[in-house]
Each structure stands twice: as C-alpha cells, then as structure tokens.
C-alpha cells in the first residue's frame, strides 16, 4: 500500500468514525476545539508554566498524592520517562540488565532504545503470554538490576496477575537484590482487578510510570512517581534528554481534566467490559467457526478479539458497517502471527456504556453480515 493509499484509508476511517451515532470500542478523538473547550474549566488567567514550574509542578504533586509516593516528575512521553527511570536504577544498582517480558513496551514499540540510547541490556524471565511469576524471577539464570512489570501487559491481551501473584513476583525480585519498576501506563484501571487502591499497588514498586493519554484521554504526557531523591535524579536526566520544554500547560491541563473526569469513571468501564466481552463471545459463537475473546473475563476495560480472516477484509467490513449504519463495533484489525488470523483491541469507555448485551449481539451480527457479504474467505471453513 502506498503512502497516498494509506492516507486515503485513514481519512475514510476518520470520516466513518466521526459520522457514527454509536461506537462500542473506544470513541472518536475530540477535535482541537473540543479539547480547548474542556480546558476552560481551569484557571486560564493564571501564569503558564516555565520550564516545569506552575501547572507542571501542581500536576506532579497531584500524581504523587494519588499514588502515595514522595514525589513525581512530569515527562512529555512515557517512553522517555521509563528510559530515564531504568537508566537511573542501572546506575544505582550497578547492574545495567533489565528483566522484562518480551512483549513489554520497550521491547516492541521503542526501536531498541534501551540499548541504543541508555546502554541497557534486557533479559526475559518468561515468553509465555502472561506477566513473569515468582518462579520465573527466581529461576532467571543471570543477575539483573531491575525487574520491570507492565501492568497490564498490553500486547498479551491487557492481562494482569492476581494480587497474590504480583506480590510474590515482587518479593522474588527483592530476594535477588533487584529493584522493581512498574510500567503503569494503564495502571489507573487496575484497581478493580486487584481490589486495592492505587497507593497500595504503587507501594509494591520502587518507581511507577503512568500515562495521561492512554486511559485518561489527555493530549500527551506521563509521570514518573518514586522517592524524592530518585525523582530529583530523573529530572536531571529529563533535562539531558530534552524533556523539559519551555511551556507544557496544554498537556498538563488536559491531564488534570482526565484525572478529574475520566479516572472516576474507569471502574465503571471495567465492570461493563465484562458484560461486553460475554456478549461478544455469545454472538460470535453463534456464527463464527473459530474466534477468541481474550481474556475471557477482561482484567481491565480493554481486551482482544481474534477472528480467522485477513485484517483488510475485517477492516473493510467494519468501515462499511460504520458508513452504512452509523454504528461501529470494532476498531482497527491487525494481522496476527499466522496468515489470515487477525485481532483487534476492544476498549470499553464512555461510548460503550449505553450498549446492552442485546445491542452488542445485534451490532456483532450486523458486522458479520457485512463480513460475509464482502468476502467469505476464512482460514477455517
């Protein structure tokens, strides 16, 4: 596909999503004007930040209070926040080896930056589609300075361990004299699964990164929360990495909006995700010879759906459904590890709360109708 074709397809999808009356998975991105309108609820007559003071410092204090840590540092991206955190821990432990899952964000989505930029090395306690457990950590054949746990593990299906498993894994890392860092880009929505408040979860780790745009709908930005001395060191590295722009107040205010308006709604999204996942399983089982809703009961408000069709066929069916019925059930599909097997991520948020089990069943049946009409191809006949 050429760049022009990709741009045309992206424009078509944007128009289709924006034209929908009903969206099950996630929703349309707000316009720039809509985002600016939201910020009017905050004090826009005050002075903006300058190199990390003012609103930036206020957000950092808010995050530290929410997570129960001594301090926090705002970063323009989570990628930078985590690289800085892991670099700091390597210096403090004297060990530049980071133990993490091969599906973790730095291994899949950062172009090898831990090694190329920070000079770190990674090892994998397990390759199974789950977080490392205590036995994996204890049995790792070589020393490591930091254990990084992504909560939830997004590319494996937004999966989480139980609270007992998580605490045991952390304890195993301590036994090996390693520090623990949480990739908590989506930590905000983990509290229902663990049955613990955010400070109790964050207290297990030596440092925690959280995102402001993935679940909270902010413009951009992240925070690294930890002890005051680690945050001070991280801020020094933040400056070296070019992560201290002159002003960042639009991103900061949108982060505050997410904390004020989206964070309280996340438990409701998680609860409704279980209803949506069950309805999808029932609807797909009636008409598709092979499928997976993974996990069967979502750990958060996000999960995967797998179908035995090429991604382009599934995406075309979804676009036609959106264009012709103003209803969209699934987002973008991607090819899986086998040809003709594809998956999509379902995010249950505000737009999905009005969907009943019957609505999910009807929308799914409608999508499958467009799929059959467009192409009967399947890897399972």
From TrEMBL:
Domain Aromatic amino acid beta-eliminating lyase/threonine aldolase: residue ranges: 50-283
Full protein name: Beta-eliminating lyase-related protein
Protein family per UniProt: Belongs to the threonine aldolase family.
SUPFAM superfamilies: PLP-dependent transferases
Source organism of the structure: Streptomyces hazeniae
Regions crossing the membrane: none
The keyword Cell inner membrane is assigned to this record: no
Coiled-coil features, chain-numbered ranges: none
Family annotation (PANTHER family): L-THREONINE ALDOLASE, L-THREONINE ALDOLASE-RELATED
Record-level Gene Ontology MF annotations: lyase activity
UniProt cofactor(s): pyridoxal 5'-phosphate
A Pfam match: Beta_elim_lyase
UniProt keywords, alphabetically: Lyase, Pyridoxal phosphate
């Amino acid at each position: 596909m050429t760049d022009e074709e990709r741009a045309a397809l992206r424009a078509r999808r944007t128009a289709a999503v924006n034209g929908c009356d009903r969206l099950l998975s996630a929703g349309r991105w707000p316009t720039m004007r809509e985002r600016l309108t939201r910020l009017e609820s905050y004090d826009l007559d005050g002075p903006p930040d300058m190199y990390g003071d003012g609103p930036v410092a206020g957000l950092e204090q808010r995050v530290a209070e929410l997570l129960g840590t001594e301090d926090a540092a705002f970063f323009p991206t989570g990628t930078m926040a985590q690289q800085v955190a892991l670099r700091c821990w390597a210096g403090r432990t004297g060990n530049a080896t980071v133990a993490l899952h091969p599906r973790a964000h730095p291994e899949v989505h950062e172009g090898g930056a831990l090694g190329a930029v920070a000079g770190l090395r990674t090892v994998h306690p397990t390759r199974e589609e789950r977080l490392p457990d205590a036995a994996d950590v204890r049995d790792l054949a070589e020393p490591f300075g930091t254990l990084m746990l992504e909560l939830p593990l997004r590319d494996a299906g937004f999966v989480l361990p139980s609270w007992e498993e998580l605490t045991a894994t952390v304890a195993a890392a301590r036994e090996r004299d390693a520090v623990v860092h949480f990739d908590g880009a989506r930590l905000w929505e983990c509290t229902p699964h663990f049955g613990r408040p955010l400070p109790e979860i964050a207290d297990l780790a030596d440092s925690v990164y959280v995102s402001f745009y993935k679940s909270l709908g902010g413009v951009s930005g992240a925070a690294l929360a930890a002890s005051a001395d680690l945050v001070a060191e991280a801020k020094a590295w933040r400056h070296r990495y070019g992560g201290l722009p002159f002003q960042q107040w639009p991103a900061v205010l949108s982060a505050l909006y997410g904390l004020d308006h989206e964070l309280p709604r996340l438990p409701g999204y998680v609860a409704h995700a279980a209803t949506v996942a069950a309805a999808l399983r029932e609807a797909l089982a009636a008409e598709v010879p092979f499928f997976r809703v993974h996990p069967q009961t979502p750990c958060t408000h996000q999960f995967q759906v797998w179908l035995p069709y090429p991604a382009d066929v599934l995406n075309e069916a979804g676009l036609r459904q959106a264009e012709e019925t103003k209803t969209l059930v699934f987002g973008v599909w991607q090819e899986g590890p086998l040809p003709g097997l594809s998956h999509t991520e379902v995010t249950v948020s505000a737009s999905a709360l009005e969907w009943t089990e019957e609505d999910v069943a009807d929308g799914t049946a409608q999508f499958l109708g467009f799929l059959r009409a467009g192409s009967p191809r399947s890897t399972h006949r």
